[in-house]
C-alpha cells in the first residue's frame, strides 16, 4: 500500500505561512522553517502589544489630564477625586481630549469640581 502524504494540505499550510511573511527580511520571507518561527514570534508580539497599547494610551491620557489640571491650579488625583465625588462620569479619554482641544470646557469641569 503506498504512503499517503496529503501534499495538497501541506503545501497550503506552507503557502499560508510564506504569504503572511512577505516583506520580512532575508530568509524570514522565503524559507519555510525560518518564516514559521518569525511568524510565530510576530504573532506573539502582536498579541502582547494589543494589550500594551491600551496601557500606553491610558498613560498618555493621564499625563494630558494632569497637565491641564495643573494649569488650572489642581492636580490629577484631586481632579479625579472631585469628579468621583460629584458623580461626573467622564472617562480619561474624553477628559484628555477636553484638556487638549477644548480648554473652556475643561476649565468649567475643573471649576465645578473644586
Describe the structure concisely.
The chain has a single domain (8-113), classed as Orthogonal Bundle (c-terminal domain of poly(a) binding protein).
List the helices and strands and how they pair.
Elements: H1 7-20, H2 32-71, H3 76-85, H4 92-101, H5 103-113
Count of individual beta strands: 0
Order of helices and strands: HHHHH
Portion of residues in beta strands equals under 5%
- The secondary structure category is mainly alpha
CATH architecture heading: Orthogonal Bundle
* Sheet having the most strands: none
- List low-pLDDT spans: none
- Compute the number of helices: 5
Q: Please give the domain count.
A: 1
The global form is rod-shaped
Distance between the termini: 85 Å
CATH topology: c-terminal domain of poly(a) binding protein
* Cα-based radius of gyration, to the nearest Å: 26 Å
Instruction: Spell out the CATH superfamily.
Output: Ribosomal protein L20, C-terminal domain
Q: What portion of residues is helical?
A: over 70%
The CATH class, by name, is: Mainly Alpha
Mean pLDDT: 96
List keywords for this structure.
single chain; 114 residues; mainly alpha; c-terminal domain of poly(a) binding protein; 5 helices
